């Protein structure tokens, strides 16, 4: 089989899986489903006793997952994630009490933790030269899956074709298909448009990447801060779409560049550790801002926007230093060749 055929096969397999996995029309409506007549949980129970289980299980299980993913060669962990998703959406429609719902959120945390295996598998099966394009395609398909899922749920609810309970069955069906599809993955032996286009953008990311990430972070922070001053819903939608487009593009750059510079046996370990640290920081920030300081929504968004801008400034300083080192290195080489 030629390399091009192998490339197309791996990407096609992963894209189908990614789309099915993200096609979860019930997910945006979990809160009204739990709060509605089907379950009758209070908002306090949902926010303080149900959702935190998923966050904490994700945080704790992620450590185990990223240690095992490389060892198990990715595919079993991808299948495990699918099974965890199936269990989650099997329990959700059937559960009658709080403790059973909490069990479903434990499995949702496991489902989220296994996401690291998806990209690790991608990098393990493809040549490093194609990481950026492959990452952009994989992320674009995930965004398409999420967008299609959201649109489907909105249409079905708007025209009263289905209710919140029945949307769970579509999600369960899609995750079941995704898990079955994952069984046929080849084993490993050793904005959607913005995200897609990044894969074809040629740049010396090792030199200018930090400056690009600095600009992206500052733009994201500015968009978040702007949303705190806007009351119009449509404007906030536009700001959020712009934020997600910039986020996905910068995430694609960072993921592909990291993958190019690490050993093929360490993908899940590195990406899992990165995700764990990020999730730990998110948890600490959430506890501090919401539980301890009890800030209102606008103040929370001001903190998050400021955080992005500070990160952007740090990237900018690091980027300027990298360019200075690169220019100095070139001048040294020129002077050395001139002496010869």
UniProtKB/TrEMBL annotation:
InterPro entries, alphabetized: Folate_carrier, MFS_trans_sf
KW Cell wall biogenesis/degradation (keyword) present: no
Keyword check for Membrane: yes
Domain of life where this protein originates: Eukaryota
Gene Ontology MF: a single term: vitamin transmembrane transporter activity
GO cellular component terms given for this protein: plasma membrane
Ranges that cross the membrane: 49-69, 76-94, 106-124, 169-198, 205-224, 230-247, 267-290, 302-324
Pfam families: Folate_carrier (PF01770)
Keywords of this entry: Membrane, Transmembrane, Transmembrane helix
Family affiliation: Belongs to the reduced folate carrier (RFC) transporter (TC 2.A.48) family.
The protein's name: Thiamine transporter
């Amino acid at each position: 089989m030629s390399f091009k055929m192998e490339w197309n096969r791996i990407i096609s397999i992963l894209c189908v899986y990614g789309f099915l996995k993200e096609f979860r029309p019930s997910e945006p409506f979990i809160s009204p489903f739990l709060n509605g007549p089907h379950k009758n949980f209070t908002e306090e129970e949902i926010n303080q006793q149900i959702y935190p289980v998923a966050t904490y299980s994700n945080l704790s299980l992620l450590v185990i997952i990223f240690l095992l993913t490389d060892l198990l060669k990715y595919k079993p962990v991808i299948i495990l994630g699918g099974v965890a998703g199936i269990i989650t959406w099997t329990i959700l429609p059937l559960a009658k009490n709080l403790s059973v719902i909490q069990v479903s959120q434990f499995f949702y945390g496991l489902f989220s933790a296994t996401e690291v295996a998806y990209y690790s598998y991608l990098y393990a099966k493809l040549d490093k030269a194609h990481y950026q394009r492959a990452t952009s395609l994989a992320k674009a398909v995930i965004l398409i899956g999420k967008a299609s899922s959201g649109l489907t749920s909105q249409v079905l609810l708007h025209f009263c074709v289905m209710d919140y309970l029945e949307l769970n069955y579509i999600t369960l069906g899609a995750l079941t298909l995704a898990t079955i599809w994952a069984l046929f993955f080849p084993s490993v032996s050793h904005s959607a448009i913005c995200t897609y286009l990044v894969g074809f953008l040629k740049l010396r990311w090792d030199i200018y990447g930090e400056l690009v990430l600095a600009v992206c972070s500052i733009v994201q922070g500015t968009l978040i801060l702007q949303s705190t001053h806007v009351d119009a819903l449509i404007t906030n939608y536009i700001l959020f779409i712009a934020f997600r487009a910039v986020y996905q593009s910068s995430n694609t750059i960072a993921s592909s560049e990291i993958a190019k510079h690490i050993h093929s046996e360490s993908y899940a370990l590195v990406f899992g550790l990165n995700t764990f640290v990020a999730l730990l920081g998110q948890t600490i920030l959430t506890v501090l801002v919401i539980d301890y300081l009890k800030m209102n929504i606008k103040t929370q968004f001001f903190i998050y926007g400021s955080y992005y801008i500070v990160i952007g400034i740090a990237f900018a300083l690091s980027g300027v230093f990298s360019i200075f080192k690169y220019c100095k290195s070139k001048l040294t080489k020129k002077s050395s060749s001139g002496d010869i």
